[in-house]
Amino acid sequence: MGEPWELTLAEASDLIRQGALSPVDLVRSHLDRIAAVDPHLLAWARTVPEQALAEAERLEKLLRKGTHLGPLHGIPVGIKDIYYTAGLETAGGSRVLAGFIPTYGATVVRRLRAAGAIVLGKTATTEFAYADPAPTRNPWNTDHTPGGSSSGSAAAVAAGMCLGAFGTQTVGSIVRPAAFCGVVGLKPTYGRVSRYGILPLAWSLDHPGPIARTVRDAALLLEAVAGPDPNDPSAADRSVPCYVEKMAEPPGGLAAGIPDRYFPARSSAAVMAAFQDAVRVLAGLGIRVRDVQLPACFEAGVEAGRVVLHAEAAAFHRDRFRVRRQEYGPKLAALIEAGLLIPAASYLRAQQVRSEAIAAIRRLLREVDVLVTPAAPGPAPEGLGSTGDPVFNAPSSTFGLPALGVPMGFAPPGLPLGLQIVGRHFDEATILRVGTAYEAATPWHARRPAL
């Protein structure tokens, strides 16, 4: 075994369960890794090394007493800085909330800690999870963006600074940064994971979810946090399956749809070449790949999501924005100002169009089990002034569908590309099943940036 930080979450979990790895040693290894590489990447808004080591010692004592809390026992994780963490600053990447310390933790954070995960700190986010970039850099090339808004979460996982991290996706903020950083991003179905205690961008579009090195790691993180929550009425009252068991089933016989439009015209040549290779791999796994026609209302539904985003972001920020306008970044300020001009009738009409598109997508997903597309139009753009284009992720976010991003290869000059697998509502098991098989058949997930 190399350094503990080089392990996957599942590998570290097995070693801890067997008594071959100490949670304290695992946390120390990751803290040393953070000290070595984060000055170059700026993936963390703040870390809590003393608290993390104290928690690791507590969990190690439990192991000595014969108590094992499950697969996340002793696993170090990062939390996007829009999740409330009791006693730990949650600034949302903004001057507006600088110094804000919540008195309670988000449901996701509480469930992670109950499962034995150790919070190393808060990962950097774009301002209030929108478009004004965080300072974070891409581990594969620090002249390029890591994506956003879950910038720090993706970069921290890719650079080996934690074994998993949590982000949120309102448009493309989990799957896109995961693709740009060469890791796995899982955006669950809307309502699969509680939003309680998470700063909203647009409450009917926000999806919390994990970023990890492998599909199995992402599944373990999702299992720990998913499920109903009385504190969040939008959290679905549905049982959570054992994803790790279901994803082990071979994917032969499943049907994957390749959309007829929207994605190909926006993809770079490098992305299309890698995507065609990925489709051939899926077919070789026994998956029936076929072209499908997107519903006529598809684009209108995606555009309706943009209206919803503007209106809901403006509603959340309105009062604070009126008195502290100068403290907001330019992109978020423009979003809020535009949203304040949207009439109620236009917002309600957008929700209606969105609902019609969701119904049409449901009908399409009766014909195939999953849709597969590139995760982004190209690799991470150069420069830190933008986090890249979320256009390929907006449909699954707007329609509330589960989406999994997995590494799909590399484009010059050595930047990662991602494959996106989209499934039916609350059918994370199938996208994980397809993603697991694809990951096992390709070498991309095993590559690591040279840091």
Summarize the structure.
The protein has 451 residues and is α/β, with parallel strands linked by helices. The protein is 39% helix and 14% strand.
Describe the protein's architecture and organization.
- The protein folds into two domains: 4-252 and 381-446, Amidase signature (AS) domain (Amidase signature (AS) enzymes, Alpha-Beta Complex), CATH 3.90.1300; 298-359, no CATH class.
- Strands 1-3-2-4-6-5-10-11-9-7-8 form an eleven-stranded mixed beta sheet, sandwiched between helices.
- It is built from 14 helices and eleven strands.
- Strand 10 and strand 11 form a beta hairpin.
- It has helices at residues 9-18, 23-41, 49-64, 107-114, 151-158, 175-181, 215-225, 243-246, 269-284, 298-324, 330-339, 344-364, 394-399, 428-441, and strands spanning 44-47, 76-80, 118-123, 164-169, 184-187, 207-212, 255-259, 288-292, 370-374, 403-411, 415-423.
- Helix 5 (151-158) packs parallel to helix 6 (175-181).
- With 451 residues, the protein is of the alpha/beta class.
- 56% of the residues are buried.
Overall number of structural domains: 2
What's the architecture of the largest domain in CATH terms? Alpha-Beta Complex
Largest sheet: 11 strands, mixed
Distance between the termini: 19 Å
β-strand amount? 5-15%
User: Helix share of residues?
Assistant: 25-40%
Q: Please count the helical segments.
A: 14
